Amino acid sequence: MAGSTARLSPIAATHCRGVATSVRSCSIIGSLRCHQQQQQLQARRCSALAAVVREASSAATAEAASSSNNGAPSAAAAAGARPNIQLPKNFDPAEREQQLYKWWEESGFFAPDPAATGPAFTIPMPPPNVTGKLHMGHAMFVTLQDVMARYARMAGKQTLWLPGTDHAGIATQNVVEKQLEAEGSSRAALGREAFEERVWQWKEQYGGFITNQLRRLGASCDWSRERFTLDAGLSDAVAEAFVQLADKGLVYRGAYMVNWSPRLGTAVSDLEVEYSEEPGHLFFFKYPLADSDTEEYLPVATTRPETILGDTAVAVNPADERFNAYVGRRVTVPMSGGRTIPVIADDYVDMEFGTGALKITPGHDPNDYEIGKRVGLETINIMNKDGSLNAAAGAYAGMDRFDARQQLWKDMEAAGLVIKKEAYTTRVPRSQRGGEVVEPLVSEQWFVRMAPLAEPALAAVADGSITIMPERFEKIYNMWLENIKDWCVSRQLWWGHRIPVWYVHASQADADSAEEGRSDRYIVARNAAEAAEKAAAQWGQGLVLVQEPDVLDTWFSSGLWPFSTLGWPNSSAADLKQFYPTQVLETGHDILFFWVARMIMMGMGLTGQAPFSTVYLHGLVRDDKGRKMSKSLGNVIDPLDVVAQYGTDALRFTMATGTTAGQDLNLSLDRVNSNRNFTNKLWNAGKFILFQLEGVSDAEWQQLSGADFSSSSSSWQGLSLSDRWVLSSLHQLVDQVTACQERFDFNEAGQALYSWAWGEFADWYVEASKARLYSANFSSVSSVEDPDGGGSAVSADPHAAGVTRGVLVYAFNVLLRLVHPFMPFITEELWQALPHRGVTLMKAAWPSHEAAGDAAAVTQFEQLKELVRGVRNARTEYGLEQARKVAAVLVVSDPQLREVMQQELPVVCLLAKLEPSKVSVVGSAEEASAAAPAGGCVSVVVNEGLQLLLPLAGLFDVDKELARLTKQKAKVEKELGGIMGRLNNPKTEIKPGVFEGYWQWQGHKIRYQCSGDSGEPVLLVHGFGGNCDHWRKNTPQLGQRFRAFSIDLLGYGFSDKPDPRQAPPNSIYNFDNWGQQLVDFTEQVIGAPAYISCNSVGGLAGLKAGILRPDLVRGVQLINISLRGLHVERQQPWQRPLVAAFQRLLRETSLGSAFFGSVATPRTVKNILCQAYADDSAVTDELVDAILKPGLQPGAVDVFLDFISYSGGPLPEQLLAATPPSVPVSILWGAADPWEDMAEGRRLFAHYPCVTEFVELPGVGHCPQDEAPHLVNPLIEAFVLSSSSSNSTDGGSSSSTAAAQQQGVAAA
């Protein structure tokens, strides 16, 4: 036998090893069952082993055939026959993912299915640059778009995900020019035609790298339709678009100020210029009065002295009395040889900047250019296109602009024209592509008038033709289009779409003598032949035509992408007729202007239709600390490295479920690893089911392939409670996930799948199914045995086991279909190994919506689960050994439920580790007393009408338990004594502390500080729930710096989430996790008293869960009362009792101050208060009295107002009246939007004279929950309470209370 096995193929050998393992397992199980059953089972297994050995050569042949076809299933397997597949111990992503993808692509599964009966669903892929290398941004868009495409495909839609790449004019030309430079050559040396050929060669060699990397991520786009923005069809579309725009009068050539990149030698778009804060200098110098005999001068300041040579005026503000007398006079331009310019008055001048007098350089500053046009100033260009100064710069001609800056300043020093030079932080414009400093200069360029194109684009969003997700970006979209400027579309490059303009010359000599071949006469045409025909018709024969040397902006061709890729301008093209307009445009929010808005304008302007109906914008992918990934920080994560370590499925699931539309994703590899564990969970569940099917006949396999429980007809007859529960729960999951897919809520869909698969299916149903799969007689309690994680699928009750196998296969099949869009590889592999119908999971039908359910079964099984949890908790509390089974009495008052529990006792005993022969079910306490054993019982009350009695005898060792409790009591008393001793020691002095640092957020550098003369520093930790690890890792010195802490339980701070009581055990939203983390954090990490802060429903849920322990509640002096989520109309049923608990807390505890945060509506605080408690006016008044009015003794109240997310509306007079100016106040005000009016904040500042610091944080806004650890938490708003007044026994205060109050400082 061994010799035969050695000659088997790997597949056959694996199967033999699996059978041999089964034989060994049978021997173990046989010891628990009758000898006859054991012998029969072993005989069947050995018989199967012998059959495999006899057919070794056939298996080897089959394996070779399978390998040659990338593991593709056979036609028989597609029809429901048993496949020749044995799953290995673990899924191997490195090997199988690429094999599966190759099979998918070669089989044509990515193309639209002509047999699909649903509507068209088209997604145009944002074309990555042909120079691109895969990064996390690509991984994000591939994941989200692939989820959309795979769902639509399974839902029966004619799905086209259209891929392609962009020629990336600047980037690609830059790459090739660097290669030429390394070779000692240049594009000028090659000439235009040879250079273009060289770039095409580079593209053919390297251009496919990025698309192959996209394949590695599982992108199911139709590669047979792949397009390139410079291919023939798209190039024709570009020419057609330009001609049509010109025919409409929207194209013109003119001299305007552009952003010029000297190294790249081209103009770049405003959107391609990035401004960075960099250290520089502010140069103060003298502008001598030309008409003065004395040394009279105007003091002027600039950051770019070299541009002085291009000045054409000096401007002052007409309201500035210092310079009124100089207006109308002339000054001499320094180092210009005596050129004079006027002094003018203009409201634009900021009197506070520099000296208040502003040099005007229309040729090299965009603001000065506008002033120059407005008042008619001359425009002088002093710079060549390579960044050197030209002849207009006089003695400095030929010098580099930065060298000229230094030399000019030295010469001015020598001439006595320098006042001073001081350090100054400047906003430096840099090219997004090349990184060099961009130079504003006036240049002849081609432009497209955008206002006529913007009007229908604005209307399309306004009337709902186009939906932008998330909705908040509509405001940004509208603002940009309403203020849009004409688009400079010409680029001084050789790689790209050459502008379809031909200049007309009378002779070749005229053409050769013209600068770059240009003339005042030109023709706009689709090609050279059409240009010649048009020119001859207008100016006659014998003309010489020269094509415009510039190329179009890359974004011009990209703006045509949704329709040019489908065959436009050929209106009869099949793809254009079937798939345009497209349905969804998914891309990053950072290119809303670059690309999305331009596609909408071009689409509506050229096709008359909106190019898509939905715009889904995803956020940026940041590191786990919320920082933007960059090489300088060393925090760049390569997607392919993550794929190699964790598998594509784990990365995709993390990307799809880690954020919502428009929100940035903080990518943690810990989360990726957790999701890799999820793939392992699915794999093991699949292997468990497959093991249960080893003994079934081919006929049953075929029957299982078509198992369908979506309707509650005869298929539900004879199902157990657990079967009916899991099917009902599964069908609810289908409805939830389907609804999420339809509204593109991938985060909620993924979380629901994760929770159900791990919790409901694997932890509950799979375990419960063993009662029927492994029991000799399901109806007999005494026969139930726990297989301890193993067992055979053969049962003495074949019907019961067969029904359960059917439910297992059906439920797992549906689950795989739901998960497939997120995790395509492992789900396909599992689906192929299990009973199924069809060739590929990718084309399997999406599960039926609104399928059958049994509400009563769901309720009853939830009762069973609560019962099992109660037993497990009791076992844990008393330290009962894992394998030890105990007796129990179930008290079930409801007759129907009692009958169900009696029937399901095998499941209860299996899951709760109860001794079947010692379990009884009774209906009343009297019956329970009679059935209970002597010695007393532990009572576990599950809920009203359901109770469990566990006999004390044998449950735990009484002596050991008493010893444990005594030791724990002594420890607590010792700690309490130490704390009280320190608090009561009159010599204890709280010294002033200082803690400060910097926090980086979206380009803002914010300083946070806590300092003071006396008092007790209090650290406010926002968004605490689930983020303890973040603080534990990043703030290890907290206990040494702060003496008290306010902890905000924002672990579940949004009212649109489901009931946290249903959260999975390992979820951060689980009540138990909150309690344990809070205890760990306060006692082990901080080592200091904690003031508790309740933010939104997260804090309320914490109250309900008992997290606010009595010893902490009694010491509460600061409570964060957030009204977000407390609106009556937004409350879910489970939240209402929490609000009531919160109201009781207000009445029963002494609150020292209030913290208004997360007010996420434009209503006033007063209105929100009224809405939050509209059903109880007395409570409303009580809330105002207890919080807004200083009802406690003077000095005992310290008010801290946080309006970080307050987004408008006048503050209520009630608030100002309730807290008189004598109350010390610290105010942190952050606008929800960067342009938010801060007038109300200034009014607060004026109202409270005790405020020593008023802080404006524009752009902070409300932070979403998943960003809380990195946005709100690190903004440590220091808050200091006076220890003398706070600890006063009579509630009085000292006269120095106001001085002792410390404010939170967060200075931007």
Automatic annotation (TrEMBL):
Using the UniProt record, name the top-level EC class of this enzyme in a single word. ligase
- SUPFAM superfamilies for this protein: alpha/beta-Hydrolases (SSF53474), Anticodon-binding domain of a subclass of class I aminoacyl-tRNA synthetases (SSF47323), Nucleotidylyl transferase (SSF52374), ValRS/IleRS/LeuRS editing domain (SSF50677)
Q: Residue limits of the Aminoacyl-tRNA synthetase class Ia domain? A: 99-668
Enzyme Commission number(s) from the entry: 6.1.1.9
Arranged from A to Z, the UniProt key words for this protein are: Aminoacyl-tRNA synthetase, ATP-binding, Ligase, Nucleotide-binding, Protein biosynthesis
- Describe the location of the AB hydrolase-1 domain by residue ranges: 1018-1273
Per the UniProt record, one Pfam family is Anticodon_1
The annotated regions of Low complexity compositional bias extend over: 62-83
Q: Where is this region: Disordered?
A: 62-87, 1285-1308
UniProt domain Methionyl/Valyl/Leucyl/Isoleucyl-tRNA synthetase anticodon-binding: residue ranges: 723-886
Catalytic activity, reaction form: tRNA(Val) + L-valine + ATP = L-valyl-tRNA(Val) + AMP + diphosphate
Do you know which PANTHER family this protein is assigned to? VALINE--TRNA LIGASE, CHLOROPLASTIC_MITOCHONDRIAL 2 (PTHR11946:SF93), VALYL-TRNA SYNTHETASES (PTHR11946)
Q: Which family does it belong to?
A: Belongs to the class-I aminoacyl-tRNA synthetase family.
Q: Which NCBIfam families match?
A: PRK05729.1, valS
> What's the protein called, per UniProt?
valine--tRNA ligase
**Which classification does the entry list for the species?**
Eukaryota, Viridiplantae, Chlorophyta, core chlorophytes, Chlorophyceae
